[in-house]
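Bug #77: duplicate submission created two jobs. Keeping one. Sequence:
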Amino acid sequence: MQRIIAKRVSMLELFYDLIFVYAISKITAMIHHPVAGGIPLFNYIEFVFVVIMVMQIWLYQAL
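Kept job's structure:
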């Protein structure tokens, strides 16, 4: 079994985390206000596309 070695978090990593938190808050604002009780198809497709792109960027940065 491997030992886990603690690593200090740099300020740059914390800054990137803050950027992604801000991006996710803006993404959720895209579908926060439903129109006539629902989300228009275009807004939903745009939301899914942006979520996929941001998560791919986050995964790339995390690795």
